[in-house]
Write a structure and sequence with these properties.
15 helices, five-stranded parallel sheet, 416 residues, 14 strands, alpha/beta, Rossmann fold, seven-stranded mixed sheet, 40% helix
């Protein structure tokens, strides 16, 4: 299969040029190994055999021997390698020596310690529509700060977006049919609950209960549902599930990067409004939500209300991928007055932009008002700086700019 360039490629090059080692993290199957191999001069896979893990514990220098950058794939299977690589980076005093990739955080989370100045982190996610070449890429996210107007035509119909939501951004599904995608996602979810989570956390969680939790997260995708609400949903008509159990299960899903919440934006306000801090719930890919509920493309297309939630999750996934090319981060905004904005894109320079997400065109006027209210009445521009852009990301066909300066951008036209 031909390798498709990822937004992470340029970032990985830059990080290797600045530090001794780069840790690539993300959910299983999102393309970490393929991307790392494009940049590595040698590699070793820790999941090939138990003997390799034993060798890493007994003689880590042997595992690390090889041309640089050397890829250590699924390194978390031998967490002791972290300190060995740290010392090797110190001894060599050269940049770009190692790439580590992993689909789970080690049980003792050794990466919290002693990595400063040696390791950089790179988070990968399933492919954006731009990366999978389903988007025309006519509207550049990074170029919006300098654009007075936008234009472009999305190649994606409403039904095509529903199909792509079910298929997800998994590289293994490029060119696959909807039926194959459904089989893949179902098997992925089953492995996640029965194998990946217990192996990563070292605790035999109840797989059926974990599956019900993923179903609850799927129903509440792109929302700010509380732990208590999720616990009630998981309990259903059966015995009540303790909130602490739900919290532990959600932490386990974070450990394998399946749960990918969108944090609230922390920003200086000019009004007396108070920021809400609850994160929005998202799975690493909207296809997992649909697999958990058994929803296919046709059923999703017939449910525009739920499709709107799923579409928002698609947009958040894509914005995180695309903004990451410039080391940007994505947040959401909500205050105590009820004003909500679906996505805030913030870059290391301090520049920021805001985006509302609307599957159709019926609520564009309200989305425009929300964005203008955020810019003109909420954010303290003297301390935060002016908004670089305001945009409404849609599932419609044409990109254009409103008289207010707010851009209307179909997701099928968005690129890095």
């Amino acid at each position: 299969m031909t390798y498709l360039v990822r937004t992470a490629d340029r970032v990985l090059d830059e990080l290797l040029g600045g530090l001794g080692a780069v840790l690539i993290e993300g959910p299983r199957g999102c393309g970490k190994t393929s991307t790392a191999l494009e940049h590595a001069a040698s590699s070793v896979r820790m999941d090939r055999s138990p003997e390799m893990v034993a060798l890493a514990d007994l003689n880590p220098v042997e595992v690390l021997r090889g041309a640089s950058p050397r890829l250590i794939d699924e390194w978390q299977l031998a967490p002791s390698l972290w300190n060995a690589i740290r010392h090797e980076v110190d001894d060599r005093r050269q940049r770009g020596q190692f790439i580590l990739s992993g689909s789970a955080t080690p049980a003792d989370d050794i990466t919290r310690h002693s990595g400063a100045g040696r390791f950089a982190r790179l988070r990968m996610r399933p492919m954006s529509l731009s990366e999978s070449q389903h988007s025309s890429g006519e509207v550049s996210l990074s170029g919006l700060a300098h654009a007075t107007t936008v234009s472009g035509t999305s190649p994606l119909t409403y039904d095509a977006l529903a199909s792509l939501a079910v298929r997800g951004g998994w590289p293994a599904l490029l060119g696959a049919t909807d039926r194959h995608a459904a089989v893949f996602s179902g098997a992925y979810l089953d492995d996640l609950c029965r194998t990946d989570v217990p192996f990563a956390v070292g605790v035999r969680h109840d797989a059926d209960r974990l599956r019900r939790l993923v179903g609850s997260l799927a129903r509440n995708v792109a929302s700010e549902a509380t732990l208590a609400a999720i616990a009630r949903d998981v309990s259903g008509a059966g015995p009540p599930v303790d909130v602490k159990t739900i919290a532990a299960y959600m932490d386990a899903l974070r450990r394998v990067f399946a749960l990918d919440e969108l944090p609230a934006w922390s920003v200086a306000l000019r009004s007396r409004s108070r920021l809400r801090t609850q994160p929005k719930l998202h799975l690493c890919d909207p296809s997992l939500a649909l697999a958990a509920l058994g929803v296919g493309p046709a059923r999703l297309a017939r449910d525009p209300a739920y499709f709107g939630q799923v579409f928002e999750s698609m947009v958040v996934r894509d914005l995180r991928c695309l903004a990451g090319a410039e080391f940007g981060n994505v947040y959401h905004y909500r205050d105590n007055t009820g004003l909500e904005v679906d996505a805030i894109i913030e870059y290391p320079s301090g520049a920021w932009g805001a985006a509302e997400v609307k599957l159709g065109s019926a609520h564009l006027a309200q989305a425009e008002r929300n964005l203008l209210t955020l810019r003109d009445e909420r954010v303290d521009a003297d301390r935060t700086g002016p908004a670089a852009f305001l945009a409404i990301i849609t599932g419609t066909q044409y990109a254009y700019t409103l008289p207010s300066g707010v851009h209307v951008i179909p997701l099928g036209t968005l690129g890095p």
